[in-house]
Design brief:
This protein has two domains: 185 residues, Penicillin-binding protein 2a (Domain 2); 359 residues, DD-peptidase/beta-lactamase superfamily (Beta-lactamase, 3-Layer(aba) Sandwich). It contains 22 helices and 19 strands. The radius of gyration is 33 Å and the shape is elongated.
């Protein structure tokens, strides 16, 4: 009996302990801890999201590239909706009554899942529509408006750089669970790469419901409300007036222009043409299908995505390698008889004096001279065979950033391509090719592919006499950090003592007296000491591409630029004028009267019919 009593005693004590624990837990939840009360799933509470203002995007001088304006989303809590005049509601927002009926069929179908949640019903309505709705809000119980910021674009430039925002979809939310339906995110450009800083942090207001689900008041006088935190402003490296001017010059042309500040690697302009009109960015969903079906691909950023042969501007790379390898000097002279001739191979050239030294070969862009240079590099007896020599050549070229992604902070950058011995072993068989087989590399043709960003970076390397900073499009400051790699110098494998020799030739390209053979004379601007190099990239699919790189001034350069105009012919005809006009505009602030006719010719020219395009699918 004592044993039975002891067992009962322990059972009672155990039950009492459990009761005390449960009671204490219940007291804590109901009286002390507000966590349960303010839980978002609590049907007694209604959470109204407060969206933050997205950070602005500015140019390097403080001009607003992307700002914010107030719009409204019309929200609905299906459980609270009472019978209303559908026609009157639709008249306010210019809706089809079928849309409203379909939405409420959907709400009825998923009513258990939806519960007391509030959801977007109409997005981005104008202030005028919202004001009309607000005056009649009593007639539409269960509907409400939430103010939020939307993007606007006060500066008509840089749409491909800025990027756009759009509403997140289910796939995005699955990968980013901190986003909810109705949220927006950056999809391309700076909007995408700096989403974390730009988006800000959402807040909310909590309202208390009564037993009939009517809103009574702020819960606990707003004690648990959370204010939204605005996004940070992002300052870009772009010079908005220069960007706008470049787009103006490239209008009705296909190609790209990239300008870089050599001393920092900051991108001053990145023009891709044809591009997106900034007016389309605010309503990208409305224009998206038209943009992606446009045969000229305005959403394709040619500056970082289009890898093309560089043409004659690449002669400067081979010249530097030749000097580094000791197979030529600046005094080395080679003949040109309307081109280079070896066996059955001929690489044509234009008429000019012969023979030429190193500087004159750059000045007159002599194909024959650089054919001799490349063969001297590849047939150099210090290497056991041409394959080993070509691999060393490839290493030199890649040290300039070619054939790889530069690591910029801009999305969708392509690596381009620089061939090596494996490339030709695969094409011709091992040891079954020689220096003459790859002679087209001497003039920037063949298998070489590089983007306009690569060319602009190469030009900045020349301007710096042997090193570059990784090009980037966001400036540090205002709480925005950029990677330390953007402050690091990247030296090439070429001794820096050889770069002034190439720069001397580039100066002669532009500044030699008229009639003496400088291929870039059209880019001459008194007092700017522009150093440049023309290029005409052969194109088997149509007219050749017009290429030009230049920097200025010669000493302490402020801008390096590459222009690539597709299917436009000689480098001096289109690319050189466009690049030099942008240099003049940036350094002088205006275009001299003597070059106004040139400016007008560039602005008015329409070269679109030269470009072969595929007809859009029907």
């Amino acid at each position: 009996m004592a044993a039975n009593f002891g067992r009962k005693h322990y059972i009672v004590i155990g039950l009492l302990i459990v009761f005390v624990i449960l009671a204490a837990r219940l007291f804590h939840i109901q009286i002390i801890d507000d966590e349960y009360k303010v839980n978002a799933d609590n049907n007694a509470l209604k959470y109204e999201t407060r969206y933050p203002a997205r950070g602005q995007i500015l140019d390097r001088n403080g001009n607003i590239l992307v700002g914010n304006k107030i719009i409204y989303d019309i929200m609905v809590t299906p459980r609270d909706v009472k019978e209303f005049d559908t026609s009157a509601f639709c008249a306010i927002f210019d809706l089809d009554t079928g849309y409203v009926k379909e939405k409420f069929r959907e709400y009825k179908k998923f009513r258990t899942k939806i519960g007391f949640r509030t959801m977007p019903f109409i997005k981005q309505v104008s202030s005028l529509q919202y004001n009309i709705f607000a005056e009649q809000a009593n007639n539409f119980t269960g509907f409400d408006g939430i103010a939020r910021s939307a993007r606007y674009y006060p500066y008509d430039a840089g749409a491909n750089i800025i990027g756009y925002i759009s509403e997140v979809d289910e796939n995005f939310i699955e990968k980013h669970p901190d986003y909810k339906p109705g949220d927006y995110t950056g999809r391309t450009g700076i909007e995408e790469t700096r989403e974390e800083e730009l988006k800000g942090e959402k807040g909310y207001t909590i309202y208390l419901r009564d037993s009939k689900n009517r809103i009574l008041s702020h819960y606990k006088d707003g004690e648990f409300d959370k204010s939204p935190i605005p996004g940070k402003d992002v300052v870009s490296t772009i010079d908005a007036p220069l960007q706008q001017y470049g787009e103006q010059l490239m209008k009705n042309k296909v190609g790209s222009v990239v300008a870089i500040e050599p001393s920092t690697g900051e991108i001053l302009a990145m023009v891709s043409s044809p591009g997106i009109d900034v007016d389309m960015l605010a309503e990208i969903n409305k224009h998206y299908n038209d943009l992606i079906n446009d045969p000229y691909k305005p959403m394709y950023n040619r500056a970082v995505m289009s890898a093309q042969p560089p043409g004659s501007v690449f002669k400067l790379v081979n010249g530097l390698i030749g000097l580094q390898e000791g197979v030529i000097t600046t005094s080395s002279r080679f003949p040109c008889h309307n081109g280079y001739h070896a066996g059955n191979v001929t690489v044509g050239c234009h008429v000019h004096p012969s023979p030429l030294d190193f500087y004159s070969a750059i000045k007159m862009s002599c194909n024959s001279y650089f054919c001799y240079v490349l063969r001297a590099i590849l047939d150099n007896k210090q290497y056991s065979n041409v394959a080993v020599a070509l691999d060393q050549w490839s290493k030199y070229v890649k040290s300039f950033g070619f054939g790889q992604k530069l690591g910029t902070d801009f999305p969708s950058e392509q690596a381009g391509f620089i061939p090596d011995a494996k490339t030709y072993d695969k094409a011709y068989g091992k040891r079954r090719w020689h220096s003459l087989t790859v002679i087209s590399l001497s003039i920037g043709q063949g298998e070489i592919g590089c983007t306009p960003l690569h060319l602009a970076n190469f030009c900045a390397t020349l301007a710096n006499r042997g090193y570059y900073y990784t090009p980037h499009i966001v400036k540090e400051g205002n709480g925005i950090k950029i990677d330390s790699c953007f402050h690091e110098r990247h030296y090439t494998l070429i001794d820096t003592t050889y770069f002034p020799e190439v720069v001397k030739g580039m100066y002669m390209v532009v500044n030699s007296p008229a009639g003496t053979g400088g291929t870039g004379r059209i880019a001459y601007v008194p007092g700017l000491d522009i150093c440049g190099k023309t290029g005409t990239a052969q194109n088997p699919h149509g007219d050749d591409h017009s290429v030009f790189i230049c920097f200025a001034p010669m000493d302490n350069p402020k801008i390096a630029i590459a222009a690539y105009v597709e299917n436009a012919g000689f480098g001096a005809t289109w690319a050189a004028p466009i690049a030099s006009l942008m240099v003049e505009k940036y350094l002088n602030g205006n275009i001299s009267p003597e070059r106004k006719d040139l400016e007008q010719r560039m602005e008015n020219a329409n070269l679109m019919n030269r470009v072969r395009i595929k007809s859009p699918r029907k």
